[in-house]
Amino acid sequence: MWRPTEMTAVDERGMTRYFEELEPPEGVRVELLRGEIVMMASPDLVHNMIVEDVLDQIPRKRWSRLQTQDVDIVDEASEPVPDLVVLRRDALPGSGRLLPSGLMTLVVEVVSKTSVIRDYTIKRSIYAAGRVPAYLIVDPIMAQCVLFTVPTGDRDDADYQGQLTVKFGDPLPLDILGIELDTTDFGTFTGVRPHRYP
């Protein structure tokens, strides 16, 4: 007897295999999010400058800071590519395309004009399902940072219990890294419609 859940599992495994062999055009970033392939154009300058600013504030002697690293989420048909991944230097594996989510301390996504829903809902659940201890969204549309902590639940029901929102210009305590993030110089998008997330 056919069961929808069995078919979905087969489809997701097949999509994961297809995704691994996919070669996107130059300048296109590709992620697998719960069985769906998502393609994005290269990021905006504001986006890239924020990523650089965050990276520069995380001490390299203690933390590995990786940009656009493919992430492996256990028991998920997902291979997100966060804007920044932070993990202890002694936790960094020697090689491999996929970085296991269990090794990560912090994941950072900078919201683009088209990624709002993915960053605030789908990726929030995916990173929580992967037990990433802290997920930071830097949002140049709303000029705010949202830090999610304490992942709970599994798969589609996974989420973070802790949430801290800080406006650009105010310091953001990143206790998990032992630093306070200066958000003063984070740029914003102009002429973009505000949203209601988180």
UniProtKB/TrEMBL annotation:
The keyword Cytoplasm does not apply. SUPFAM superfamilies: Restriction endonuclease-like. Pfam families: Uma2 (PF05685). It comes from the Bacteria. Coiled coil: none annotated. GO terms for molecular function: endonuclease activity. Transmembrane segments: none annotated. This is Uma2 family endonuclease.
